[in-house]
């Protein structure tokens, strides 16, 4: 756990106490799981002496207006050993099966070269597909499940069966109804087929149609596009904004337009693939700092200023710090106040990806900037997507007017990308107005508050049950550690048997010993739904022995929902 209380002295010092070989990691501080409610604060300058427990406090009080608490409990040694053994056994069996396939004793379903093409340059690298053939295929049934309803708090799934060990699937014709959805990014519940958003989208479809069939720079620029971009700029509190049809391309195609050769990108090690691709396409020098570790980031900034570019030692043309608001695999929130402080101190630029945090964080749903009560002008490039909290599609870049005007003519995504569909644009406009209260109702603010309450309640209950949970107390992305490869598939299947839809994630998307289930909480979830899901998770956790935590949180007698989740931030 890391904490940045508002009452501590601002002097850059760090209090650390490390026991039983636990090392400082992630936030530049030692891993810990200090069992206290989300708004309690340990006494000042106190280092706890409980066995295998570490307390670390960041003395940056002037930068934070509320406690900043994150949990990353150390993997139990026995679990780590058994996990490595599990992967080792699977690898050995994989080589045995590859040997049988080579001699045609076992049938091989994977794509292979034709015999007459064996002397050509190979199109398929058999060894590179080893993991896919022998590990992924064993649990493939947990992914790509087709749904046949709105991805709301509950959804309907099409049942499928496999008769060749997950190589192919057949639909049975049966629909699994009313599955509680803990996997979709529908944070505010706007992905729905009824209500003001759906009605507005239907009305616009009748007027404008579905497709535009042109780019914005030609004849695909509608008045609704212009209104949407003005709405986004007002929502974020910046001068201007522009929208793109695809969230992935918003990062991968715009970063190369902002930086290039002679520039330096400082990227968090857990940044999304779209940010990594954009950085690589830019041709800039890339240096990676440890996840949310301000000491690591400052070290790279100092080296960049002192040494300049390699060989020539000329100053970098630009230094761009690239971070995310909420990291979708860790459930952690960027330490934005400290990042901005470093950015100002070393005169770098800041690129903030708010794909998961926009709408899901802050008392007004304005993202991580709103969550910390910061000035949006301190972030040079604000990026986000409409695919999650707004229940639509696409992404945006926002900031100063000069930045947006430059991107309109230099961004590949802006020049060559087809215009966004009118009903999608209307979904964004209507949902954003709801969040801002411009629709004359309190639906938006109620959903923002409900999401915050659901998140705190769900995380707290899981920790009371004894599961290892990663991330920030206020993050609606909730990773629950599974570790062992066999338990990845087993957890997903057992949950679906009990009508709970979850997302499970394993290597190579995560470190090899940190496989997990990732729950995404929504404002659409009622307390009864959450309690039902939690009871099932506890049941399956007992069945599969997933309650690994050595620091189980004692059950609290306090009310299940906290009405003052955002009381420490000025609205």
Q: Explain this structure to me?
A:
With 571 residues, the protein is of the alpha/beta class. Helices cover 34% and strands 17% of the residues. It has 16 helices and 20 strands. The strands form 6 sheets. Strands 9-15-14-13-12-10-11 form a 7-stranded mixed beta sheet, with helices on both faces. A 3-stranded mixed beta sheet has the order 1-5-2, with no helix packed on it. Helix 4 packs parallel to helix 13 (422-436). The radius of gyration is 24 Å and the shape is globular. The two termini are 27 Å apart. 45% of the residues are buried.
Class derived from helix and strand content = alpha/beta
Q: Tell me what portion of residues adopts beta-strand conformation.
A: 15-25%
Spatial sequence of strands, sheet with the most strands = 9-15-14-13-12-10-11
Q: How much helical structure, as a percent, in the residues?
A: 25-40%
Number of strands: 20
- In DSSP terms (H or I, runs of 4 or more residues), the helix count works out at 16
Report the end-to-end length measured between terminal Cα atoms.
Answer: 27 Å
Characteristic key phrases:
single chain; 571 residues; alpha/beta; 3-stranded mixed beta sheet; 34% helix; disordered N terminus; disordered C terminus
